[in-house]
Specification:
By secondary structure, this protein is mainly alpha-helical. The protein has one domain. Helices cover 87% and strands 0% of the residues. Helix 1 runs antiparallel to helix 2. The two termini are 28 Å apart. The model has no long low-confidence stretch (mean pLDDT 92).
Amino acid sequence: MGEIQDKAKGKAKQVIGSITGDREKQAEGLVDETKGKAKGRFEELKQAVRRPPK
């Protein structure tokens, strides 16, 4: 669930940064979004490891 929040927060920061011209805020948003994506991939990996082999 945290990955969705991080992705949304990151997108919002990027948009705000674009509107205001704040490149630092855009970069923060990109970091947050990437962090959310990494959390999602990690969860997928954990699920794959837990699945029994076919």
